[in-house]
Amino acid sequence: MDLSFFLYLSSGLFLGWSLGAGDAPNIFGTAVGTKMVKFRTAAAIASLFIIIGAVSAGSGASQTLGALGSINTLAGAFMTALAAALTVYWMVELSLPISTSQAIVGAIVGWNFYAGRQTDIGTLSKIVSTWVICPVLSGLIAITLYQTLKFLARKSRLHLLRQDSYTRIGLIVVGAFGSYALGANNIANVMGVFVNANQLHALSFGSFAELNPTQVLFLIGAIAISVGVITRSHKVMYTIGCGVMKMSPLMALVVVLSQSLVLFIFASPNLREMLISLGLPALPLVPVSSSQAVIGAVMGIGIAKGGRELNWNILLKTAAGWITTPIIAAGICYISLFFLQNVFGQTVYLP
Description:
Elements: H1 4-22, H2 25-33, H3 39-57, H4 59-68, H5 74-93, H6 100-115, H7 121-156, H8 160-191, E1 203-204, E2 210-211, H9 213-232, H10 234-243, H11 249-265, H12 269-277, H13 290-304, H14 312-342
Antiparallel strand pairs: 1-2
């Protein structure tokens, strides 16, 4: 294996770190913002289950990104991931809940333009449609869950302290599930562009487990995401947890569960096959934005409460970031590929 592979892989690791800093806080942001779960606890649980989800179930969504743009050189994959990572990092510095999914999609489209490849409009439209479906679906789930749990809490007549204790346990359990779903769904954003040029070998842990080369790639990417969660996610967690709308512990639980379910729906091949076998419509396996899912859930609850408590300025600022993210990433990727090929003499695509 060429050691330069790891140099090229560094941009994917940077993107993973940026995702951990900017997207992963959505899992536990509401729990930390309402002071129901300590940041250190949230970061440790999120890191562990992101790795498990990425390694065990990360292949489904990565196939869709491969259909959007099959990047066939390491230099091209390096710059595509770097363009997305720089875009995400900039948004994190602005304390905005960004979409890594939109950043990598924009960067892949930028590579397609530079390489003279036709972007698969069918795949692109499928991905873009989820940018609308994801927050809407999350909002609808949140409204349903919020009304149901509020009714059950009123009927049960639990003491407030016991209710808070159950809610805290629920936030931790649902946060672990959400972290698993995030790893399964979003590892494609971090390492998907490197799958075709992967030079890693299978890794065996004796009789315990054996990872194929793609799983080893996803493991490395998931570790980078976890480092981002631990070292840089606290500021964005506060924006999610407190900035958009002040939330009670029950509302925080609903938000985490809603966005976790949405991420899982878009990442599970087994669920998709089951729905198809039953003759039901199935959503595509696409890397979706945890930011969009959590904002959709918060808006759903806010609308259910009359909409007066929502901070519309932050919501509009966040929406503007979602619109500009893929455009910025595509532009950075296109310009950077030109310099990488013509100044540094690297082959960024093969005919």
